[in-house]
């Protein structure tokens, strides 16, 4: 867990990149699922930003 907290931005970037590749290369994925995941990713991004801000404060 400390690895994720230390490198939250890097983990977030890798996860978002993988999700984008899956959405692009797997046409069977429903568009509603892609939109739901995009909304969740935006929420997680806010959490990652707060973690980074707390490290720099």
Give a description of the structure:
The chain has helices at 2-6, 8-25, 31-56. By secondary structure, the protein is mostly helical. The protein has one domain (2-56). Helix 2 (8-25) packs antiparallel against helix 3. The longest helix has 26 residues, at 31-56. It is elongated and about 45 Å long.
Detail the topology: elements first, then pairings:
Blueprint: H1 2-6, H2 8-25, H3 31-56
Helix pairs in contact: 2-3
Can you give me a brief rundown of this structure?
The protein is mostly helical and 57 residues long. Helices cover 86% and strands 0% of the residues.
Key features of this structure:
mainly alpha
Largest sheet geometry: none
Structural class: mainly alpha
The number of helical elements comes to 3
Which range best describes the helical content: under 10%, 10-25%, 25-40%, 40-55%, 55-70% or over 70%?
over 70%
Strand content: under 5%
């Amino acid at each position: 867990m400390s690895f994720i907290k230390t490198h939250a931005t890097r983990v977030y970037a890798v996860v978002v990149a993988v999700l984008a590749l899956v959405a692009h290369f797997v046409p069977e994925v429903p568009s509603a699922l892609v939109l739901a995941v995009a909304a969740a990713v935006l929420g997680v991004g806010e959490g990652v930003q707060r973690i980074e801000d707390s490290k720099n404060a």
